[in-house]
Amino acid sequence: VALTGNGAFDLRRGPHGFLASLLGNYSEGAPPGGVVGPTAENLQGRLRYDYFLTNRLSVFGMLTGRYDRFQGLDFRLNVDPGAKYVLLRSDGSTLWLEGGYDLQYDIRRDDARGARNADGTPVLDGTGQPVLLDKTFLDHSARAFAGYKYAFNDNVRASVGLEFLQGFVDFDTGTGQAKRSRFNSEVAVTANLFGNFALSLGFNARFDSQPLPGKESWDTATTVNLIYTYKEAPPPAPAEETPAAPVPPTVAPPAAVPAAAPAAPASAPAPATTPMPPPATPPTTPAPGATGPT
User: Fold this and answer.
1) pLDDT at residue 118 above 90?
2) Is this structure's pTM higher than 0.85?
């Protein structure tokens, strides 16, 4: 039985880049005729921030936390400041280099602290008691990383990552002192299936020149993952506006001139007035009995 889970979040906003990832593995197995038991049990989380000085050059800070039962680790913290430079960016290909410093702080499992001789027997002190390594360990290293991505076509792509770390602090093996060298690699091929789903086949290898007592220097894993990708859609481009037909300038109509009132007809000369004759005076009839002149 083997289970692998992996999630990642990647965001770029202007000169700022953010990355968060989580990876876990668990498997069980048994030798022929043996009892089934865990053979892998680890969990790793990572946070990273990049500030892009140019389109090719950035500075970054990275935090990684890891739990690994079979490497004898209750917890391992890595703090990695550094710089990244993109050497090649073309259609389908990206090649970049990283360099910086690594601080590593380990909290060891109690069952992995017993020092061992080269033949695997426990190291005993003068009283016959097992010699135990320190519960915690702090290391300082130089870090170098190279990464490459290639897209065969729109549906198939591959990625390779190689990391080397050289320690500066003497490591107590229980039988002497030594400086540690570590090497990590990751190869993955991803093919789109349909929609936002893809299938990934990966191989991871880790090497530690000074593993904890009873642990192997090499730790490898082959993984098959079903991937769902969510991408934030870019904002739609503004639609091109069809220029409106020019509107002809509005010409004010000429002011209306009020029509002239029709001229009054010329007055006809008043007709000549004929004076009316005075009314005739009727003759006077003498009153009866009146006597006229004689």
Assistant:
1) no
2) no
